[in-house]
Amino acid sequence: MGEVRVIEIKESVFADNDREAAAIRERMSRQGTLFLNVMSSPGSGKTTFLTKLIPMLKGEMKIGEMDVDIKSSLDAVRVADATGVESMQIHNGGLCHIDADMTARALAEYSTEGLDLLILENIGNLVCPAEFDTGAHKNVVLFSVPEGDDKPLKYPLMFTVADLVLISKIDTLPVFDFDVEKAKERILRLNPDAQILLVSAKTGEGMDDVCDWIRTEKSRI
Amino acid sequence: MGEVRVIEIKESVFADNDREAAAIRERMSRQGTLFLNVMSSPGSGKTTFLTKLIPMLKGEMKIGEMDVDIKSSLDAVRVADATGVESMQIHNGGLCHIDADMTARALAEYSTEGLDLLILENIGNLVCPAEFDTGAHKNVVLFSVPEGDDKPLKYPLMFTVADLVLISKIDTLPVFDFDVEKAKERILRLNPDAQILLVSAKTGEGMDDVCDWIRTEKSRI
Fold it and tell me: Is residue A177 exposed (0-12), middle (13-18) or buried (19+ Cβ within 10 Å)?
């Protein structure tokens, strides 16, 4: 079982989010830590996805995880229990996002030196988190089949800032009216550079492709 | 096919949200319009639910609908097309919520005189909309099975402000690990007065109970 620490972060003190984010990114690059910001709607399966992904990479990478929630620590505990990695729960006091300064304050309490991969599980929300650069190298957006293929049309900024979009819970495609090709088209119209992968944390489908994407991005920092 | 109008509302000018909300509620009560604020995560099925609910009540009530989105008009068009009611699309300029002043400004452009029921489909988000009284008589929260039964623990304010929680997409219960009893317990621990109903807009299960709840609330204003 991994460790979970909890930090309460209520409000930002720095106004210059982009400068703060760039400083975090530079520090992470310097120490060789690929930093990923994982975003999605509530209930799209971020935590389950991470509990499956981390064990697939643990043998080759030292991994840390930070989890943002309003006040529960459920997700950090789930990740730590399932994967054995050290996990930090950030309580953001009811805000709908985390910004670079809040990330920096969490990082001040969490030793990332020596990590190959640091994953931030952002708060479940398709609006606010997209507006704040957290200092991560890449933004990963989970977009689950039950949510419907119209979500890129309705939450365009989230899909515009995504580097990797994971169409998730694809094991449930037979149950829902979800047109994968339409979903892909809608994402690529907003963001022609987005990578799109189809995954199911439940069946494991597509998870190897995510690991390959992470290895490639790690080699590039 | 119903009509859809679009209004762009960018920021609030009144600070006193609660006073503004009370004024809206009083006006709606005076004119005999039950005003419902429907909230949920993105993709939990609010629009589909409304396209099924409204036709069940249209014969006995005059109904209006207002839909909030960042910039698309998809939902208002879907509701108007499927139900024939007049629907207004409110574009909130990228905010994660709608407050009482924004609602009042939308109402200034939308004639609600003579309506028995006015439904506001809020923006898909489990955090921000819970913080703002819109002036509705009752808050209805959709909570869909694919999102997982832990959502009340993670987004407590939303379930605390709910008058009616609809556990939705119950036709998908066989596909997901969702414990209905646990979900109910978690909601009631936060909010012992919450009504909870199980529904599937797809199969129609539970929809009659929602109509009955609306009839009762209408008789109380």
Answer: exposed
